[in-house]
Write the structure tokens for this entry.
Amino acid sequence: MAAEPVLLAERKITTVEMHTGGEPVRIVTVGYPALAGHSLLDKRRDALTHHDSLRRLLMYEPRGHADMYGAVIVEPDHPEADFAVLFLHNEGYSTMCGHAVIALGRWAVDSGRVPAREPETVVNIQCPCGLVRAVVAVENGRAGAVRFRSVPAFAFARQAMIATPDWGPVELDIAYGGAFYAVLAADGIGLELDAGSLRALRDAGEAITQAAAAQIPLEHPDDSDLGFLYGTIFTDGRDAFEEAASRNVCVFAGRQVDRSPTGSGVTARIAVQWTRGEIALGQPRAFESITGAVFTATAVEETTVGHHRAVVVEVSGKAHYSGEACFTLEPDDPLGEGFLL
């Protein structure tokens, strides 16, 4: 196995900093090495095996924090893709990230990576889960709100019971929206979806994710690399169709809390609601995060994934810029490669 690269002061990584609903998106624009492998999942494995020091450097303190999130632009292998992306967080590499797709769609148009066309520009982004089509609103050459259609979503397990050491038996659904999530109502285990309950939500989310992953084997018909439980989504239990926003909080990557409503998470929630008959095709649902940010999600097309009934979901939201950065590492910095407290 080749050694991980050492990033010296002479070598710099530049980024564009954005957020979607308060959830950060650190887009790496210059300085990340070329990745080996033909497919994007091959490149994802190469990043983990040979370049994981760069993920830690960009996501961890002192440049980031435990809830940081990032995106690395790489060469696509899908013939329709404008570019491909690897998603980074404190624990590893996501297979899908809706809040990052929303930010990347706007950035791609504003940066000229994809030529702007008014009133809408299509940006095709290859994610590890598959091709995601983003449609970016453009006015006077500037990008605005974004909506995207991800890979087909489906309910994998409904009303599954798992045993947890601290919360007793817990009933939940597991659904795929580009990544697999456990989904359950927060009040079912006595929790509330507010900032004052964040520590308890983090602890419960991690415990439930670990227990469900151990007790419910997951598999995705398209690729074994997709068959893992990414996180747990706590909801307010309001799943039937209504115009008012339903709140949810996603806990993933070892107690990381998504500040946005979670694009792949609301995609998974729509899949569950549609499978249960609680919503119909074409009925938009609004989903609110703990910051008050809102995504709109709509089931737009019925399909199948293997033997699973599935649905294509369209998610809408908006991202904003927060700055630009240039990162270096001095060779004698004992903490510069990253740490988490």
